[in-house]
């Protein structure tokens, strides 16, 4: 059985017709017991549930929310709690107060809304900073002595997250793969921005959709074409193309 770990925004979502086609093929594979689907996203669970109802997202076997700090299993309800094994492991290393201290005094920094700031995720926007890249570098410098407990994820030249060192999309998926006895050799990751890079580094196969941001394209170049496939098509069509490339799906229509 394959595992597809896919980001949502900018990866599955962006072209509804393409997503409908991909979702149907994913549903067939899941129905045949050939695919385990993990949705791996910066969204909150409630926004994933909305996406299942309104945006055509395929039904998943597990959901990673808030950049891999929360793992949920179906049935998905707005009041569902993340699985405690993962949450407790992360809480043991992370202090929200200390994470906030790394952001002090950065000019132009704006905290993300409260719903994106949790006990395990400290998130801000840097696009209002005079030089966002310089601000991100300064925050990384401050966190550097504490990399055993914290990590910085910088995405889309806007979003900066300080997460537990053990979290992030890649490690959360690894945890789930081990917990559920999935085949780690048959995990395919799909994404479009920097917070997806951790999945690409953690596993042997990554799909970057054609609309991927420069920071992920750099990772694709670094990993090389054996491990990271840059799709010629954007959004869900690119995921479908990549799944065909890695042999998870038979040749995708519309791709020569
Ligand atoms: Mg994305």
What does this 3D model show about the protein?
There is one protein chain. The strands form two sheets. A seven-stranded mixed beta sheet has the order 4-3-2-1-9-10-11, with helices on both faces. A four-stranded antiparallel beta sheet has the order 5-6-8-7. The chain has nine helices and eleven strands. The radius of gyration is 18 Å and the shape is globular. Helix content is 35%, strand content 19%. Bound molecules: magnesium ion. Residues 7, 9-11, 192-193 line the site of magnesium ion.
Short description:
The chain is of the alpha/beta class and 256 residues long. 35% of the residues lie in helices and 19% in strands. The chain has helices spanning 16-31, 45-54, 84-91, 96-101, 132-143, 169-179, 197-202, 214-223, 235-245; strands at residues 2-6, 35-40, 62-65, 70-72, 110-111, 122-125, 150-155, 159-164, 187-191, 205-208, 228-230.
């Amino acid at each position: 059985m394959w595992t597809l770990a896919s980001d949502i925004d900018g990866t599955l979502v962006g072209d509804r017709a393409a997503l409908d086609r991909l979702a149907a093929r994913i549903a067939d594979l899941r129905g045949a017991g050939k695919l385990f689907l993990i949705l791996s996203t910066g969204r909150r669970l409630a926004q994933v549930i909305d996406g299942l109802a309104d945006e055509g997202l395929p039904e998943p076997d597990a959901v990673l929310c808030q950049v891999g700090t929360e793992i949920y299993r179906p049935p998905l309800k707005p009041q569902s709690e993340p699985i405690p094994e993962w949450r407790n492991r992360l809480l043991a290393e992370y202090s929200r107060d200390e994470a906030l201290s790394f952001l002090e005094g950065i000019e132009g920094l704006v905290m993300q809304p409260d719903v994106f700031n949790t006990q395990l995720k400290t998130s801000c926007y840097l696009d209002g900073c005079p030089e966002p890249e310089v601000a991100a570098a300064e925050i990384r410098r401050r966190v550097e002595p504490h990399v055993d407990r914290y990590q910085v994820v910088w995405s889309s030249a806007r979003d900066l997250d300080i997460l537990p060192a053990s979290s992030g999309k890649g490690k959360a998926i690894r945890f789930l793969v081990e917990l559920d006895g999935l085949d780690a050799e048959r995990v395919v990751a799909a994404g479009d921005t920097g917070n997806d890079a951790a999945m690409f580094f953690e596993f042997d196969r990554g799909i970057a959709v054609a609309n991927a941001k420069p920071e992920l394209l750099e990772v694709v170049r670094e990993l090389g074409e054996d491990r990271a496939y840059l799709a010629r098509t954007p959004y869900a069509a690119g995921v479908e193309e990549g799944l065909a490339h890695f042999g998870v799906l038979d040749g995708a229509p519309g791709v020569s």
